[in-house]
Every structure is written in C-alpha cells, then in structure tokens.
Amino acid sequence: MRREKECEVRQTDHFKGKQFQKDVIIIAVGYYLRYNLSYREVQEYSKVLYHLLKKKNRQSFYSWKMDETYIKIKGRWHYLYRAIDSDGLTLDIWLRKKRDTQAAYAFLKRLQKQFGQPKVIVTDKAPSIGVAFRRLKSSGLYTKTEHRTVKYLNNLIEQDHRPIKRRNKFYRSLRTASTTIKGMETIRGIYKMNRRNGTLLGFSVSTEIKVLLGITA
C-alpha cells in the first residue's frame, strides 16, 4: 500500500508547477503524438475559425485599445498591430513589415469598416498613428471618435500582447505567421468570451470549436 502511494505521488509530480492542468497537457500531447496534422492544415483551419469568430463579434464598442508589438519572421522583426475592445476581446490584427503611417492608416481604416466607430480609441504616442488618425478624420471617418494617448489607459492591450509574444515561433513567412497568430487569437478570444460570460466551468476548447464550426455531433 505504501509503495502504491509513493508511486502515485511520483506520477503526480510530473505535472507539478506546470502552466496548464494535467488533463490539458495529456490531451495535447496525445493528439500531437497520435495524429500527423501538417502545419498547412493547422493554418487552414486557423483562418476559418478566425473569420467565423469575427462574424460573431461585429457589434460597435464604446472604446478600443490599439497598439503594436514585435514578431520575428526569418530573423527579422515585423510589426503586429492589434486592437481590442473594453472587455479585452480582440477586434482584429494586422501584421506588417514596417511600423509607419501607411500601416497604421490601413489598420484603422480596416477596423472602421468592420466595426464602425467607437466613442474612444486609445493608442500610444507613436507619431505615425496620430498622423493616420487625423488623415482618416479629415476624410470623414472617426468623426465622432476621441483619440486618447494616455499611457496607463493602454496597459490592458500591452499586457494582452504577452501570450502572443510567449508563443513567438521561428516563422518562415509573413503569411504563415499571420495565419498562425489568427488561430491563437481565436482560441484566446473564445476563452475570454467564456470568462466574461461566467461560463468557464467545464470549458473545452474542442467543444467550443465545434460550436463555432456549427458541428452538432
């Protein structure tokens, strides 16, 4: 009996201090070892899931937070523009080679086309974003939106970059990096929505993906 207990303790210790729960690790490792999913297949479904989630999340929000972070692709830094709403849900991403006015302008215009205009948009003090916002406003977009650049107001999105940065891989191209990150954003978005709605108990990624895809059985 004592040996059985000692054996059980040693088995449990394999998962001690890990970031994820034991069951999550076992399922992930099992699927990885059992099935030969190619990176191309993962990317294909990442893109599908991302667009399905965005269709469900098209309402206008009171405030947005927009920022950019760094992603390395083939040894070179690229810029990932991200925007989230006041609940921390990702609105969209935009991966570019440069951090300039043209990139900021395109991303802000893309956001407005998808979601309309918020009451407030919070960004850092990057000159390129300020110039892009003023250009859009002069062309008739974001006419009722206040642009704020107070640093502490943007802490939420700066902290929200961390999971993406932690998962930063050795990406081989802009396209593969963008598609993979969209998949990550989708899963995180589903998790955040469940957390906001108070339905995290019994949360299952596979179940949520089936719901998103409309799979009933």
Secondary-structure map:
Elements: H1 2-13, H2 22-34, H3 39-55, E1 63-73, E2 76-85, E3 90-96, H4 101-115, E4 120-122, H5 127-138, E5 146-148, H6 155-160, H7 162-166, H8 174-197, H9 205-213
Parallel strand pairs: 1-4, 4-5
Antiparallel strand pairs: 1-2, 2-3
What would you say this structure looks like, in words?
It is a single chain. The chain has two domains: 2-34, no CATH class; 39-213, 2-Layer Sandwich (Nucleotidyltransferase, domain 5), CATH 3.30.420.10. The model is unreliable at 5-11 (pLDDT under 50). The chain contains nine helices and five strands; from the N terminus they run H-H-H-E-E-E-H-E-H-E-H-H-H-H. It has a five-stranded mixed β-sheet with strand order 3-2-1-4-5, sandwiched between helices. The protein has helices at residues 2-13, 22-34, 39-55, 101-115, 127-138, 155-160, 162-166, 174-197, 205-213, and strands spanning 63-73, 76-85, 90-96, 120-122, 146-148. The longest helix is centred in the C-terminal third of the chain and has 24 residues, at 174-197. Helix 5 links the parallel strand 4 (120-122) and strand 5. The protein is an alpha/beta fold and 217 residues long.
What's the end-to-end separation, in Å?
43 Å
Strand-pairing-aware structural class: alpha/beta
Q: What fraction of residues sit in β-strands? A: 15-25%
Please state the overall shape, judged from the principal axes of the Cα atoms.
globular
